[in-house]
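Review form for a predicted model. The reviewer records the input and the model, then writes brief findings.
Reviewer: anonymous (R2)
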Amino acid sequence: MGLTPEQTIIFLRRLNEAIALHRDELTRLDAAIGDADHGTNLQRGFSAVAEKLPDLADKDVGTILKTTGMTLISTVGGASGPLYGTAFIRAGMALTDSKDLTSAQIVAAAEAALEGIQMRGRAQRGEKTMVDAIGPAVDAFKAAILGDETLLVATRQAARAAETGMHATIQMQAAKGRASYLGERSIGHQDPGATSAHLIATVLLDIVQSRADEA
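Model under review:
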């Protein structure tokens, strides 16, 4: 059981709803160590993505993800637009012409997305960024798939790893972006990018769970 274009569109629609619901929380976290715009920026970007979804109903998963990425880059300010935009574009490039994704394809797309974020942001783990949630999530997902776990189990483990990585950023000192200007004062605050990354993993888990329940 993989992911279809229809499920991908549902995922993006629900992600837009989740970001709108958590907008204030993401902005509050960003206000402590950043520009206080992470939530509002992401809401603007994914709202623009949602508006394009009806026109993507007959497209393959790669095209849907690449369109999502390009839309985020063109509509989202700050660092989150280019970073998440690059992630979706790279994932889409790994899935060109794909209609029903295998677990192996999802692993390849996730690894491509992480690589794109690290390249664009020049970020590594331990620097208090979204990479600290996404990196462990990708590792956990890949390990589960290689261990012959189901897509649902792998996605659940990825979401759990993203949550652990998100919480781990609280005790980190920021080394990237505006938060790095605070030095040691950035310690004690949860990174907003890691928080939105965990939110994305949670929404994806909900989609995979729903499809498993229907099977």
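Findings: The chain has a mean pLDDT of 94.
Further findings: The CA atoms of residues 143 and 149 lie 9 Å apart.
Recommendation: see findings above.
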